[in-house]
């Protein structure tokens, strides 16, 4: 089957998207989790619509890592390839913002930002999360480049550089211990983190990690790159990379409109939508995958969860299809009583 480009996909498929057409599955969110699910469902011969608002969380990053055979690929290129693959199996796309959803006869109705409607038998929400960053000048501007949070995503890229860790909570010591694996020049800025225990202080000292007390005031940025961390007392500590611990909050507006509220993550890192091991939520017919339910999932993990949710969702549709077929067969097949009644007459 010939694969269409993203532009061809959008142009050639949106004309068939009307409220009168009910898709088997509408996937809300076109990142790794959503595209992986859409690929599996399209290959399962399901009618699939992917709605995407075009604002991926990892857009600032130069590349995706730890994704076997795709290591270093840009986030935009990964999405482009994924969309082409889904389109090759008949999956359709709608570029826009899904605003709300409600239960209707036979499935769900999704209201778009322009008030247009989309209907589907099942929903799979893969809208990801939002990173709530510390309110320090320079952090948001450099997020995803010189301001990072995950050593497995960015550690290799900042290896042997001068790294700072911004202490904003109980995870500061853990982050320092991790990033020390990639550089022997690591500084912990205590900022608002709780005081170190004697054991923690001893361990950091043994690994030559410098601890800087006091609050951070701003980042020093030169030519768009991090040059240092400025304390509130005016002291500047030269650094090439800064590690922060964002608060992860699921993009859950669509799910909230269906009565699904985010709940605190057990590890205290944010809020996510609860689901079972296959992504099924408390609302029948609504699945989730990726960061909207697993705040710590990297791209490859999000893609895997999309596949698992798709398989479970397809089985649910098969069960419903079978029940409908049985009901139709029973309705079309005369009962013994009906046959005898006709014979008697």
Features:
345 residues, alpha/beta, 7-stranded mixed sheet, 9 helices, disordered N terminus
Could you explain the architecture of this structure?
With 345 residues, this protein is of the alpha/beta class. The chain is built from nine helices and 19 strands. The protein has helices at residues 6-13, 32-43, 75-88, 151-154, 172-179, 198-206, 253-256, 299-332, 336-344; strands at residues 22-28, 48-52, 92-95, 98-104, 107-112, 117-125, 129-132, 147-148, 163-166, 186-189, 210-212, 216-222, 225-231, 236-238, 241-243, 247-250, 263-264, 270-272, 286-288. Strands 1, 2, 3, 4, 5, 6 and 19 form a seven-stranded mixed sheet that branches. α2 packs parallel to α3 (75-88) and α2 runs parallel beside α8 (299-332). The longest helix has 34 residues, at 299-332. It is elongated and about 100 Å long. Mean pLDDT is 92; it is low at 1-15.
Helix and strand arrangement:
Layout: H1 6-13, E1 22-28, H2 32-43, E2 48-52, H3 75-88, E3 92-95, E4 98-104, E5 107-112, E6 117-125, E7 129-132, E8 147-148, H4 151-154, E9 163-166, H5 172-179, E10 186-189, H6 198-206, E11 210-212, E12 216-222, E13 225-231, E14 236-238, E15 241-243, E16 247-250, H7 253-256, E17 263-264, E18 270-272, E19 286-288, H8 299-332, H9 336-344
Parallel strand pairs: 1-2, 1-6, 2-3, 6-19, 8-15, 9-10, 9-15, 10-11, 16-18
Antiparallel strand pairs: 4-5, 5-6, 7-16, 12-13, 13-14, 17-18
